[in-house]
Amino acid sequence: MRRRNNRVLSLGVMCTTVAMLTAGCLSGGGDGGSSGGGGGGGTDDGDGVVEIIGAFGGVEADSFEKEIKSFEDESGIDIQYTGTQDFQTIITSKVRAGDTPDIGIFPQPGTLTQLGEDGEVAPIDDYLDTAALEKTLIPGLLDAGAGEDGTTYGAPMRVAVKSLVFVPKKAYSEGGYSTEPASIQELIQIGDQIKADGVAPWCIGYGSDAATGWVGTDWIEEYMLRLHGPEVYDQWVSHEIPFDDPKVQEAFDAYGEIVKTEGNVRGGAEAVINTPFAEAGTPAFETPPGCMMQRQGNFITGFFPEDIQANLDESVDVFYFPAYEGGYDGNPVLGGGDLAASFNADDEETTKVMEYLSGEDFGKSWAGDGGWLSPHSTFDTSLYPDETTRKVGEIAANADVFRFDASDLMPTEVGGGSFWTGMVEWTTGDKTTEEVTQEIEQSWPSS
């Protein structure tokens, strides 16, 4: 499959923001600080030390350190991990200075593939059994780390899932609403039932300071996958089809059936724009609920009220954001994740660590701490700490294709600019679908 031209060494500001909302917020924690040895560059071959730089810190880094201890004890390899919230900038500067770590754990695939195409990162075919990986990974995940010619430079070691609907468990159950809608059309009918019972069906908030609008882009991405499938989705991301293509406009209009229909969203369009995304689901847990359904990533549970988090399984239910009847015949999942890549494939110890990080058994300890989902469909979901996370893990494992967040992969001018602002203008009704998609298309860089 032809891969997108990512242009992402210039993505610093956008990725710092968005990564914190996706892969970087899997557990709602982490200060991005250093954990473990870290230090000033790649280690010597055969010295017993493997240096890793990644984007997770705080409690996530602590869980990573705990996870790798048994491997270190068994292998005799000292893994020194450094976490930084400014991963994109740090890794790029280290490459330019010739001071790379042995392994980088990339929260965004774009920079990884660019570095791979520049010859800085080794293709995983050089040191991993990719055929074996494909047998256990969620379909489509290896594509995320592939360059223009299909060469794969990174192996997934963690995923985040966005194709989810969260609801207040007791109120939703008492209302008799289904948690197994067969299609988006059926989900809209459920929304109509909720509205008839006097509650706004949807909890949606775009507010995110300078990144306001990213929640809306996620909705469009969900519809692009479900209406047109992964092939068209990839063409959209790579600009093989223009942003104002009729297929893209169809996704906007289909989402409009939810967000623009009177009474569907708590507070209407103005509330959507002004409500912080982290607070959008809070009214669902009031008595009576102020709204009922929230389509969001699995990280959103870290923003629920503390009493809800403390009793997550009793308070929250979650189900798959369904297919679109008449659209793509499959079960796609939208999300993000972390990809491990080797800067030192000639070092046997680095390769052993890469085999461990990308293996289907990695994460058995981390899974129990929370904040981690396996990219392998074969992972034992009973190891996750609660039923809510187990359900999310099963949704990911049952996907027939996984695709990374499109706005994160598009050029900064679009994915972190015109697409965000366009969603705000379109949702409020200030601009039509045609106007917004044409303006976003015009903002796409020419080179």
Number of helical elements? 18
Helix content: 40-55%
SSE order, one letter for each helix or strand? HEHEHEHHEEHHEHHHEHHEEHHHEHHH
CATH topology name of the largest domain, in short, is: D-Maltodextrin-Binding Protein, domain 2
Q: Termini distance?
A: 22 Å
Tell me about the largest β-sheet: 6 strands, mixed
Q: Structural class per helix/strand content?
A: alpha/beta
What's the Cα radius of gyration?
A: 21 Å
Query: What do the pLDDT scores average to?
Result: 90
Strand residue content: 5-15%
Q: Pick out the low-confidence regions.
A: 1-41
- CATH domain class name of the largest domain: Alpha Beta
> What's the architecture of the largest domain, going by CATH?
3-Layer(aba) Sandwich
Overall geometric form: globular
* Total strand segments: 10
Q: Which superfamily, in CATH terms, is the homologous superfamily of the largest domain?
A: Periplasmic binding protein-like II
Search tags:
447 residues; 42% helix; transport; 18 helices; alpha/beta; Bact_solute-bd_prot1; six-stranded mixed beta sheet; D-Maltodextrin-Binding Protein, domain 2; 2 domains; four-stranded mixed beta sheet; globular; single chain
